[in-house]
Design the sequence.
């Protein structure tokens, strides 16, 4: 949780090489984080645990990220950014090694937590480095390019990793993640400039945001929206196995459709926000989830229809971040850095919550219940959004009335 004190750039051009490298690191992190989605049945079989317990590998990662990321970023605030990034990537590599060697589900969870600790350093610090190196007028473009790697990991890294897992065993996918992480750490040390200065964000600012019910209500909508999606997405592979009879190739194809939707959604989210406004866009996306996800409980359906459904579902899901971030910055402009850091933690709280809720659905019922349960959770997210928006409007109205009364006096 730090904000950069950018050096004076010598030119008005973006440092393309550094941004591309850090975006590639985000790709490796995204692949390592979410590749579990495509191999849940393999984990369950190999480690001799239930499907829900295997899906808990995603929950363990998400919880560790949410808790450790703000702490580790704060603790390393006075260390050179290149050292922090390289160390974070090395920590992620160590977690990938532990995952590949995990002999039981407990060791798997611990290794996934180690991966999350490394990722929780690299992604936020990498974003700050990109912002520091980019000219002021091009920071938005630079940040967008940085996060493109994370989006691309959904489109390519996750399905490719799933294919490798089904073809050569799930451990093989993590050996590849390990190799990519080690290479990334080495390149960071060579390519990222030394001596970047950062000013730590005040803990008082963080405390103010945490105590503000309106701000935290808005931030936690991120968790409720994503939790609804991950009720279904975490266990998509076993759902496809059970209802569609899909194996390696079928699951990989569906994950590719989801990844393509993620790329498109990342672009559409900004357009929706500019045209409809942030809150109206978020209402539309919630409605889309409420309608789309229960359809998965009606499978089997035609494979072509399933691919279209998955693509559209992903577009609605990945269009979320742009309007939500704009909404938060508009709600608390003076605390934007802190609020967006909390929003990043809320992403993984939502991921963990959704995976855990999906596990409970499997424990209480059948895998075919997942879509309907996710739709109900999306309805709850819509209620959360409307309540949060109303609370923000009421406070704005009170502040306006107070200012008007002061002017009259």
Sequence:
């Amino acid at each position: 949780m730090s904000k950069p004190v950018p050096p004076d750039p010598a030119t008005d051009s973006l440092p393309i090489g550094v941004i591309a490298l850090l975006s590639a690191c985000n790709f490796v992190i995204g692949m390592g984080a979410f590749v579990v989605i495509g191999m849940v049945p393999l984990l369950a079989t190999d480690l001799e645990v239930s499907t829900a317990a295997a899906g808990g590998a995603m929950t363990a990662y998400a919880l560790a990220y949410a808790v450790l990321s703000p702490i580790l970023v704060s603790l390393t605030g006075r260390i050179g950014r290149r050292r922090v990034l390289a160390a974070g990537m090395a920590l992620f590599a160590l977690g990938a090694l532990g995952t590949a060697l995990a002999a039981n589900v407990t060791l798997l969870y611990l290794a996934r937590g180690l991966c999350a600790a490394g990722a929780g350093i690299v992604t936020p610090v990498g974003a700050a480095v990109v912002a520091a190196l980019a000219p002021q007028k091009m920071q938005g473009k630079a940040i967008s390019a940085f996060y493109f790697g994370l989006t691309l990991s959904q489109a390519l890294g996750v399905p490719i990793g799933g294919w490798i897992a089904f073809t050569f065993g799930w451990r093989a996918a993590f050996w590849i993640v390990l190799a990519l992480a080690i290479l990334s750490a080495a390149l960071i040390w060579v390519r990222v400039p030394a001596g970047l200065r950062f000013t730590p964000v005040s803990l008082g600012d963080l405390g103010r945001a945490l105590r503000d019910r309106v701000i935290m209500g808005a931030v936690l909508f991120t968790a409720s929206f994503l939790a609804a999606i991950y009720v279904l997405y975490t266990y998509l592979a076993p759902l496809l196995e059970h209802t569609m009879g899909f194996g390696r190739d079928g699951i990989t194809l569906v994950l590719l459709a989801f990844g393509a939707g993620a790329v498109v959604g990342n672009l559409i989210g900004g357009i929706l926000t500019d045209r409809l406004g942030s809150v109206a866009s978020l209402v539309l996306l919630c409605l889309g989830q409420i309608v789309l996800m229960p359809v998965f409980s009606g499978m089997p359906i035609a494979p072509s229809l399933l691919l279209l459904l998955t693509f559209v579902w992903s577009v609605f899901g990945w269009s979320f971040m742009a309007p939500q971030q704009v909404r938060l910055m508009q709600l608390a402009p003076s605390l934007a850095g802190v609020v967006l850091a909390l929003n990043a933690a809320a992403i993984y709280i939502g991921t963990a919550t959704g995976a855990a809720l999906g596990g409970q659905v499997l424990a209480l019922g059948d895998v075919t219940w997942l879509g309907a349960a996710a739709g109900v959770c999306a309805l709850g997210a819509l209620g959360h959004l409307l309540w949060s928006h109303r609370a923000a409007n009421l406070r704005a109205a009170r502040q306006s009335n107070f200012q008007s009364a002061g002017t009259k006096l």
